[in-house]
Write a structure and sequence with these properties.
Helices cover about 35% and strands about 20% of the residues. With about 120 residues, the protein is an alpha/beta fold. Strands 5-6-7 form a three-stranded parallel sheet, with helices on one face. Strands 1-2 form a two-stranded antiparallel sheet. A two-stranded antiparallel ribbon has the order 3-4. A hairpin with a 2-residue loop joins strand 1 and strand 2.
Length: about 120
């Protein structure tokens, strides 16, 4: 796990990880509780971790859902995840900048520094 300011990521060998597993999100939320810190107001996450945040922890969640992994789309249909953004999870991250800008604007966070 790696944290930069308020953003927590799963990384390995210097690269961000993609996972279908809920354990990284569970670990982060448990750690926040153990430190006496508040749970996030909004989780924006890859589908495996987003599933835990929305379905188990009942946090407001926006999921990035790989088009061939239907579970997170089911979670959205059941009301556990607010929005699932369909995408291909094997694309270079900078190609998602327009998508990130759109999500930030829809979340009412436009104009904030993204560094």
């Amino acid at each position: 796990m790696r944290q930069i300011e308020d953003v927590v990521m799963v990384e390995q060998y210097g690269g961000l990880r993609h996972t279908h597993f809920p354990e990284p999100m569970k670990l982060v939320l448990e750690q926040l509780t153990a430190e006496g810190r508040e749970q996030p107001d909004l989780v924006i996450s890859d589908h495996g971790m987003a599933g835990y945040a929305g379905s188990q922890a009942k946090l407001r969640t926006i999921a990035m859902g790989d088009c061939n992994d239907p579970g997170i789309f089911v979670a959205e249909a059941q009301g556990d995840v607010e929005v699932t953004v369909p995408l291909d999870d094997n694309v270079a991250p900078h190609l998602y900048n327009p998508l990130v800008d759109y999500i930030i604007s829809r979340a009412g966070l436009a104009g904030q520094d993204r560094r």
